[in-house]
Design the sequence.
């Protein structure tokens, strides 16, 4: 079980690296040390997701303007609900965290980190809610 979990976490990390290598204008991102810290935390969340019966995916939403504060975290819970992906968990937590503010009013200044390229559902939710 531990070996399977380590493999899952390693796979999630490699998927995160693939996403991170896509060209993104540098000025839109926080500094590299912060990105590495956020990605390490996402891998930890992916590991926790496996422990909770989900798939190895984790996500967080941070506010780079506040010194890189992590606002919310998400874990995949697809073992219990097939649409409860890490990104959906984080976006839902963000809505709860920001109340009574609206997510769309705050989201343009935030950054979402995830261990894999978001699926079509999560990409759509991210664009709709955070874009
Ligand atoms: Zn998804």
Sequence:
């Amino acid at each position: 079980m531990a070996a399977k979990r380590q493999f899952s976490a390693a796979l999630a990390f490699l998927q995160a690296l693939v996403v991170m290598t896509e060209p993104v204008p540098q000025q839109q991102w926080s500094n590299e040390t912060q990105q590495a810290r956020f990605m390490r935390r996402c891998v930890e969340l992916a590991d926790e997701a496996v422990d909770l019966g989900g798939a190895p995916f984790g996500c967080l939403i941070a506010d780079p303007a506040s010194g890189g504060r992590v606002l919310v975290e998400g874990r995949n819970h697809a073992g219990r609900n097939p649409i409860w992906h890490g990104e959906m968990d984080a976006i839902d937590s963000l809505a709860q965290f920001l109340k009574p503010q609206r997510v769309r009013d705050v989201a343009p200044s935030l950054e979402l980190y995830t261990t894999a390229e978001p699926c079509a559902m999560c990409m759509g939710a991210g664009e709709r809610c955070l874009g």
Summary: The chain has a mean pLDDT of 83. Residues 2-130 form a domain with the Cytidine Deaminase; domain 2 fold (CATH 3.40.140.10). Strands lie at 58-63, 69-75, 111-114. The chain has one domain: 2-130.
